[in-house]
Amino acid sequence: MPDKQLFRKKFRTCKGREFQVTRCRIDGGSPGPTLTLLAGQHGAEHAGPIMLAQFIDEIASEDFCGTLNICPCANPLALEIDYEFYPEREDLAKLDDYYYARDRHGYCVFGMGRHQGPNYYNMNRLWQRQGDYGVAGEITDWLWAETMADADVIIDFHCLQAKKPLIYSASSRANAVARYFGIQAIFMVNPDPDDLDGGNLYYQNTADGNLAVFCVEFSAQHILKEEEFPIARQGIRNVMKATGMMTGDVILEQPVYLLELKTMVELRTQASGHIDFRFNEYDPVSEGDVVFEIRCLETLELLDSVTSPLTGVMGRRTYKSVSQPDEDVCWVTEANVVSATGTALEKLQ
Is the overall model pTM greater than 0.90, yes or no? Predict the structure, then answer.
């Protein structure tokens, strides 16, 4: 029977707020790889924390080898206020007038949005970063030392605005593990990040260079799509099977595509109106297929019909319902199938 232990560490913000972060270590019945599971870095992303708490209860009674390190709620103060980060040095009263809307997804009441310059409150930009970065930096230092520095694989759970879940990866080593998870799309991120983005967890490595880190993104922020929880829990078990932590085969029900930015083609329109998509994210498309149409809000007239310039798959779609002239509506891309369906995948060596 696995041995489960909970560890809690107290922290204090610069304004004196005390709180604690909990991590769980579950040792299997015999030696094996170390897998670290993390969620709750960003406060508007609640699916990962709830799913991982459920997973702890489930896996603690199952047979496996190796070690699981699990921290479901890495940033409890941000989760408490349903905000991306916890602005410990700012005027928290500004949040009283904050409301979230999908059409202003990047809005920040503190002027620290993703495209407004460096934001060092953002926990997922602080990994292995030297210096004083407040309580979020203290948490990342603690978690790295206790759960990640000796890990073989790290899976970091987040949420974004999309139709389906996806995976972000920064290395071929991470791809080799992520392909077993079972989510349809693995996106390769920028291999040459700036200083801020370089603090993202999926860019980190260990002294031996053998760490595989990838990010699983659920498809909605601020709300829960519980139907995605079983996909994530099965994905974790798939990785455990692939790495030898669990017995059994990994057989996927849908192909996994590796998508790279260099093959992406953005599709735009000069029309303003409702967007009518003809393909879901990661559906196969052929050159010449109508990908989306734009209809006038006032007359219902068809204003634009946009076709795919290539044969590949549908990429990310805008989270907005109404198009604006020359705004990126969606994109299509060439795709490599890295995991096929219906047959058992070979295990990692």
Answer: yes
